[in-house]
């Protein structure tokens, strides 16, 4: 596995300044680049790169010279949004990203499954999490059969034709948010679709991350390294579902943290070991969304924490293989 970084942490820096900053961390050898949608595209001029093979060669050379491989292109958005323009813009970004990944010889595009309204004419995305009252079952069936599966069946074909895998980040608020919903979409569409495994979104929902990894296996196409802290006292009072804003962190039952600030080294070792057992050999892409730690401090902490585990977890030839 490679230690990587997701570039929004350097959103205020130019491409050159970002590469100089990353160069301070010899352990980082991969980078995930945002191309639009929620992460933005601070370091990737998508249209210019699609229009010029010379610019593509120059772009790739800059990362090669910095000792970095591009692990994935990322375009988190909602292509199933009930507002036609929002959905169209998200779909356009996705398709441009797939085409650019093909140009750059990048195997994986990270995105979200999307979330439509609950019925024709509904103008607000509707994330359904309960089968009762019965109205929700009808709405959920409509979302999957009429919107989600048809869209991703065609989108997967588009990506497969370009030689690109789709890594859907399973996240609450969207139709694919856990193991079973990812598997359902994958089985209904194509193995081109897999998961961008972000442990923070799984711990948030009370999942055992190594168990998720064991269930998904080869369906894990990319991994984010992001942590989450839980407040047992607040969970005891209100549970894990919470719609208070991120400006009310002191009142929330959970919050995003830098790697190692939410779960122990033992727990992260279990995650990395499960990934090895599942055959994952891609990047651990550090994502910083910790409101309590400055980005440079969070990055340095995460690099030190993960590189130590990766070094100690490095596979060696077993003694029995020599007999």
UniProtKB/TrEMBL annotation:
Keywords: Isomerase. GO terms for molecular function: isomerase activity. This is Sugar phosphate isomerase/epimerase. It comes from the Bacteria. It comes from Granulicella pectinivorans. SUPFAM superfamilies: Xylose isomerase-like (SSF51658). InterPro entries: IolE/XylAMocC-like, Xyl_isomerase-like_sf, Xyl_isomerase-like_TIM-brl. The keyword Zinc does not apply. Residues 47-307 form the Xylose isomerase-like TIM barrel domain.
């Amino acid at each position: 596995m490679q230690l990587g970084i997701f570039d929004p942490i350097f959103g205020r820096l130019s491409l050159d300044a970002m590469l100089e900053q990353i160069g301070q961390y010899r352990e980082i050898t991969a980078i995930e680049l945002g191309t639009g949608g929620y992460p933005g595209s601070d370091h990737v001029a998508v249209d210019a790169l699609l229009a010029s093979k010379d610019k593509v060669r120059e772009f790739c050379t800059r990362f090669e010279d910095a000792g970095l491989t591009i692990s994935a292109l990322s375009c988190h958005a909602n292509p199933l949004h009930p507002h036609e323009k929002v959905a169209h813009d998200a779909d356009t970004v996705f398709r441009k990203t797939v085409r650019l990944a093909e140009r750059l010889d990048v195997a994986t595009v990270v995105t979200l499954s999307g979330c439509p309204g609950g019925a024709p004419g509904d103008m607000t995305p509707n994330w359904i999490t309960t089968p009762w009252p019965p109205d929700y079952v009808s709405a959920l069936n409509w979302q999957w059969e009429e919107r989600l599966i048809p869209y991703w069946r065609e989108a997967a074909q588009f990506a497969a034709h370009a030689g690109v895998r789709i890594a859907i980040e399973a996240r609450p608020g969207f139709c694919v948010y856990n193991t079973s919903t990812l598997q359902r979409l994958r089985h209904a569409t194509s193995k081109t679709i897999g998961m961008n495994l972000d442990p923070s979104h799984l711990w948030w929902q009370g999942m055992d991350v190594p168990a998720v990894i064991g269930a998904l296996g080869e369906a894990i196409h990319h991994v984010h390294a992001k942590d989450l802290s839980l407040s047992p006292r607040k969970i005891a009072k209100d549970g894990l579902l919470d719609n208070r804003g991120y400006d009310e962190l002191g009142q929330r039952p959970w919050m995003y943290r830098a790697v190692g600030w939410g779960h122990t080294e033992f727990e992260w070792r279990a995650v990395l070991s499960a990934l090895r057992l599942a055959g994952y050999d891609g990047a651990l892409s550090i994502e910083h969304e910790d409101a309590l730690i400055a980005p440079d401090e969070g990055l340095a902490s995460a690099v030190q924490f993960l590189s130590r585990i990766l070094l100690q977890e490095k596979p060696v030839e077993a003694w029995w293989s020599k007999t």
